[in-house]
Automatic annotation (TrEMBL):
Family (UniProt): Belongs to the short-chain dehydrogenases/reductases (SDR) family.
One Pfam family this sequence matches: adh_short
SUPFAM superfamilies the record matches: NAD(P)-binding Rossmann-fold domains
InterPro entries in the cross-refs: NAD(P)-bd_dom_sf, SDR_fam
Protein name: Putative oxidoreductase
Organism of derivation: Rhodococcus erythropolis (strain PR4 / NBRC 100887)
Record PANTHER family: DEHYDROGENASE/REDUCTASE SDR FAMILY MEMBER 1, DEHYDROGENASE_REDUCTASE SDR FAMILY MEMBER 1
Length: 279
């Protein structure tokens, strides 16, 4: 068994780029052992290998695992590997893996003009795979009496964003965290969901655009900003008091005194999506 400097173990799904990579790197900077997954081949210096290597360079321990999250058995096998290599320890699961429907620009079309198999990516990967991973994570966390299961969700729960199925998947994640918290009560395990703002990731920066969906790219959150917020929550001994909640990363960052890499405090999009309370 290889351990990190702080002894804590995380799994971040879909971590070859963007939000997943940013979360994994932030955990690595905090000394965690971080398992990272993607569908791509491992061992050929691909994107996931580079994520794992950078985690290790930052003082953590990165472990890249090829996993197709559309296959339940591959998810089960992934957790069996973590259990074996880490003596049953898992402190954090971040459900981030996501698959866009055929042709990302297809989001511009109304639902009746889109193929039915959009369901397989947006619900099959975007919701079912997270449920399967959460089941397997709970099997490791509950006996130890601690752990955090976190879902990367979206303001698409609150207002229309991208497509009907996109909103359905994100609303499902928030409800999943809320209801899992009910059944996890008293176990010490925490279930959370996160609403991120616009993310200034590799794809956005390469596009040359200045705004997206009405939000300024210059004011967007970086993937590592999201990672710092989740790391702070996972390290917080009082995190279980939040179990079942949906948290806005920009607002939670203020609570923990976290700013983005440029020193700015990203703004919450709560008011832009109607305001009001969350789950």
């Amino acid at each position: 068994m290889t351990t990190s400097t702080n002894g804590k173990v995380a799994l971040v799904t879909g971590a070859s780029r963007s939000v997943g990579k940013g979360i994994a790197l932030a955990l690595g900077s905090d000394g965690w052992t971080v398992y990272v997954t993607a569908r791509g081949t491992v061992g050929a210096d691909g994107p996931l290998d580079r994520t794992a290597a950078e985690i290790t360079e930052r003082g953590g321990h990165g472990i890249a695992v090829q996993c197709d999250h559309a296959d339940d058995q591959q998810i089960v096998d992934l957790f069996a590997r973590i259990a074996e290599e880490q003596s049953g320890r898992l402190d954090l699961l971040v459900n981030n893996v996501w698959a866009n429907p055929a042709g990302y620009a297809g989001f511009a079309d109304p639902f009746w003009k889109r193929p039915i198999d959009d369901w397989d990516s947006l619900i099959g990967i975007g919701l079912r795979a997270h449920y399967v991973a959460s089941v397997e994570a709970a099997k490791l966390m509950v006996p130890r009496g601690s752990g955090v299961i976190g879902n990367i969700s979206s303001f698409g729960t609150r207002g229309y964003l991208h497509s009907v199925l996109y909103g359905m998947s994100k609303a499902g994640l928030d409800k999943m965290a809320a209801d899992m918290a009910v059944e996890l009560k008293g176990t010490g395990v925490t279930a959370l969901s996160f609403w991120l703002g616009l993310i200034r990731n590799e794809r956005m920066e390469a596009s040359g655009i200045e705004s997206f969906e009405g939000f300024s790219l210059a004011e967007a959150e970086t993937p590592e900003f999201v990672g710092q917020v989740i790391t702070a929550l996972a390290n917080d001994p009082e995190v279980n008091a939040r179990s079942g909640h949906t948290l806005i990363t920009a607002e939670t960052a203020v609570e923990y005194g976290i700013t983005d890499a440029n020193g700015k405090q990203p703004a919450s999009h709560r008011s832009a999506f109607g305001g009001g309370p969350l789950f």
